[in-house]
Specification:
272 residues, seven-stranded mixed β-sheet, two-stranded antiparallel ribbon, globular, Alkaline_phosphatase_core_sf
């Protein structure tokens, strides 16, 4: 496995997503953007922006896992156009990383520097999108990091018992075509690898569930959002490693935990 750290900071994503949908960036976000994403939008649509975004956040899928088992991601790659490698936030813990992803700021700025789940008091993408007139839905497992740290925003929350119900609700919302941005969070792999290890049989099945769910969501976009230019993202938060005592974990300043790869695709509107 690579001992080299990625160099593109995750702080660049929030402002890029805001620009992609023609919204204000969070006020604390990194002003440097991710040109590959914006270039993809222009290439696929002929425009600088999209009408819709589907942001799928599967927990704990490190670059090393994807590179080693890339065949497992064929359905993800079928719906996406580019891969972007990021260096996630340190420490690579779920609330730290998602706070960085959706504020565009480092932990020293957004304030979450360890495994804790306070409501963020800085500006986030879930503040700037509604300010810009975007209708946003968050579909996540109840009481987990994303809905807790991004609580009390002017968005609609759909908090479900576990991943399966999250995906089913997201499919309903895509079919209704009422939201400009839908964020979907799944966590099974992170849960399973902590109980076993990152390459256990149950862990592989959890990754399969992630990728099957993403495929279903993207097919729903194809069916129900065909009148819109849509950016889709398969965007994880951190990686994992196997500790000396055998179980899976994350939180160390090592490439296995810090290096992540996102997948982005643009589905242009179709005129039937």
């Amino acid at each position: 496995m690579s001992k080299i750290f990625h160099t593109l900071p995750l702080t660049r994503l929030a402002g890029t997503l805001a620009a992609a949908v023609g919204a204000e960036a969070p006020t604390v976000s990194d002003p440097s953007l991710v040109p590959e994403i914006l270039d993809l939008i222009r290439t696929k649509t002929g425009s600088d922006t999209v009408d819709r975004m589907l942001l799928y956040n599967p927990d704990a899928v490190g670059t090393w896992f994807y590179r080693k088992y890339s065949d497992m991601f064929s359905a993800v790659k079928a719906h996406t156009d580019i891969e972007v490698d990021y260096l996630t936030a340190y420490p690579p813990k779920t609330p730290v990383c998602f706070a960085t992803m959706y504020t565009g700021a480092a932990p020293a700025v957004h304030g979450i520097r360890k495994y804790e789940k306070p409501v963020l008091t800085v500006d986030t993408l879930f503040d700037s999108l509604p300010r810009s007139g975007k209708r946003v839905a968050m579909v996540a497992v109840a009481n987990q990091s994303i809905p807790r740290i991004f609580a009390k925003r002017d968005i609609d929350y759909y908090l479900m018992p576990y991943d399966g119900e999250v995906v089913e609700k997201a499919l309903e919302l895509i079919a209704e075509d009422r939201y400009d941005v839908i964020e979907v969070y799944n966590q099974e792999y992170d849960d399973v690898m902590h109980l076993t290890h990152p390459q256990s049989r149950r862990a592989f099945r959890a990754i399969e569930h992630y990728n099957e769910s993403f495929d279903r969501l993207c097919k729903a976009v194809d069916k129900h959002w065909s009148a819109h230019d849509t950016l889709i993202a398969y965007a994880t938060d951190h990686g994992t490693h196997r500790a000396f005592f055998g179980l899976g974990m994350h939180g160390s300043n090592i490439p296995k935990d810090m290096n992540i790869t996102h997948f982005y695709g643009v589905k242009p509107k179709r005129i039937d």
